[in-house]
Amino acid sequence: MLTIGQLAAHAGVTVRAVRHYHAKGLLAEPERDASGYRRYDAKAVVDLIKIRTLAEAGVPLSRVGQLMVADEEEFASAVGEIDRRLRAEIRQRERHRERIFRLAAGDSLALPPEAVAYLDRLRELGVPERVVEGERDAWILIAAHSPERMARWMSLKRKQIENPEVVELYRRLYEMIDWQPDDPRLPELADWLAAAISNADDWDDYDPEDVLAADFAELIDSIFIDSVPAARRLLELLEERGWSGWTQLEPTSDARGS
Fold first, then answer.
1. Domains recognised in the chain with CATH numbers
2. Residue 106 has what pLDDT?
3. What's the pLDDT tens digit per position in 106-143?
4. What are the two backbone dihedrals, phi and then psi, of residue 221, each rounded to the nearest 5 degrees?
5. Could you tell me whether strands 250-251 and 243-244 are parallel, antiparallel, or unpaired per DSSP bridges?
6. Are 206 and 152 within 8 A, CB to CB?
7. Are 121 and 161 in contact (CB under 8 A)?
8. What is the pTM of this model?
9. pLDDT at 217 over 90
10. Which own/partner contact pairs does 7-16 have at CB distance under 8 Å and 24+ positions apart?
11. How many other CB atoms sit within 10 Å of the CB of residue 84?
């Protein structure tokens, strides 16, 4: 026969837990012996292990009490349901683990693989991380808004960044990232940008379905405008040269032929 301490040790619980299960009516309390101590037998150990296992599986104690007096068929059915619930919880936790891993991975948290590859290519080309981060934030918005278009857009972007003039564009943008709105170099930069846009050879790749809603394009533009002091002034200068917008450039005059 076992003392309450020995019972607890064999079942892997604390004495306090045993007393709690007594209070809840889950574990029968034996009569005291001649010395005034309660003594437990092997069945009490088995019952306590069952109670502990069910409780650790998340079964409410009220339900544990029902299962402890259930017949074999009912108990087996309940255990099957508990197993299914635990498997669902494991799958959910695995999904959480994947998201945490993706969070640690940085760009891949909210971007498809082709967008991550595009950002990595920018880094390979020497585009500074500060510029890459702006691109990443913009593409996160776009991927959430139009995930079905990402594969096409990434294909176009990968083609564009193999053009030396596009790489030069990124270089110039990084150079002006801390310029102030009154910087005297801005008009010359606007001239260069307007000429580069007008001479771009990928207009044939344009698809009307690629057009973003104006308010959404403005939201993406705000990433550039809010993070670069001279951005708004640069866009004004570009508009004077025949181009409006940033994410979604549009000619305000016959910019393509000028």
1. 4-102 (1.10.1660.10), 107-257 (no CATH)
2. 61
3. 666 678 889 989 998 988 888 888 888 888 888 988 88
4. -55, -35
5. antiparallel
6. no
7. yes
8. 0.52
9. no
10. 7/40, 7/44, 7/45, 7/48, 8/48, 10/45, 10/48, 11/45, 11/48, 11/49, 11/52, 12/49, 12/52, 13/48, 13/52
11. 10
